[in-house]
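Q: Is it fine to ask for two folds in a single conversation?
A: Yes, each is treated on its own. Send the first.
Q: Here.
A: Result:
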Amino acid sequence: MMAMVLTVAAPTKINTSSSSSRLVVGPKSPYCRSQESGLVCNFTDAQEPVYVQDSLFVEGKRADLSTSRKVEMISPPILHLPDVTCVEKMSIRNTYLVLVTEDKATKTESCTHLQELLIFNSTVTSIPSSVTHLTVVSSKVTYLDLPLCIQRASLINSHIKFFRTSSPLRDAVVNVASCTIDHIEELRTSANAMIHFLTTNITSVRMENVKLGQNTTLDIRESGFMPINSPELGISSGVKVILNNMKGKLTVIQLAAAKKTNAIQHLPAHHTTYYLVGFIICLVLLIVLFCIVVCFKCIKYGKNIVEKGNGVCMHSQPRKRDKIKSPTHTKLESEQLLEERKTLPAAESQHRNTEISSFTGSNLNKEGERRSHSVEAVGDDDQQQPQTPPHTSLHTPSSNKQTYLSDSVRKRAQYSKQLKF
């Protein structure tokens, strides 16, 4: 019976001793190996929590410390990370949960604070307060409080539940891309800070806790931004706010002269300025106005030309032509003119025949009288030489007749031309 009790008690002691031992990260850990890039610890097969102990990094020679201050941890199930550690650069990958504790670290002359922290595909409760360079990729952070000493922070494709800056950032650059932030409780900068939100969805922002210092740039591009209580963001001189394709309502107000005049200058919201549309509208109006002016000028110029042409025609053309061409004549006057055209040639020919007959009769009578006188003269002077009567007198009527006919034909032709015009 006693032997059996002893055999049972022995394994009980072994189990308790094994349970009291824990997995640690350090140069002497069986899971860690020293490489050129630093200390690499692979906890893929481990099922127990892993602890980072500063005492393990302090022990040994300085040559070992220089390589062990760069640590890469792969797949620890649960990692306990002190708030202050002697590791300069730490990389955490594929960790189910990272717990940041406030245990006091061992302080020696060779110990330096954690400067660079890289987190990939892990879940982290918080961030150590001594980090100067932070990179979070495809991870979840419950409470992200950027410390005062932060110089650069890059958050990519991650989910952050609470985001804040308890101390104003100075000379810092914060890049947030393709992330989801549930709450921004506080965002403060003192000077020379740049904060970029790209394709990030921010569910709520406490605008009263957003304070931007001098030479600070806030750039929000293609992101959702939902203010709480008030959509106004007050900025001072030297602060630059860039809003590009932002989803939500945010009004930027200038607070530069608030101390002296207690007046607030309201700046227009980012989605109310459309310079291109206004420019196109003004250009179209100017083109239409120019076309209207040109049309009026052309109409006025055409009227002047028509009036000048009518005046020249009225002075140069005869009255009968104007009478026929004028549209103001009545129908009766037009018919009378046409009858005159028809009766004029017949009357002219009859008048010409009567003139020719009268002229011929008078010429014949004169010729007979001349011949009788010549016969008497011959009877009285028989000894004188006989004189032949002039033949020109016989041809005079015919020549006069031809001259009259040619004059009448010429006048008739001129009159017919005038009627045609």
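Q: Second one now.
A: Result:
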Amino acid sequence: MTRVGFRDSFAAFGEHLHTFLIFAVLLNSALTIFLTRGKDDLKRCAFSKG
């Protein structure tokens, strides 16, 4: 494998990794918001029933 080919493949891998990291962070924040809101809704339902 030539040095240029290795650099190109590494750059492509870096781009994919960057995209994956952004996706993971967005997914994580979305899940956190969803879970906290879900817990609040559950508490509200429990309090209103109780």
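Q: Anything structural to flag on that second result?
A: Two points. The chain has one helix and no strands. The mean pLDDT is 85.
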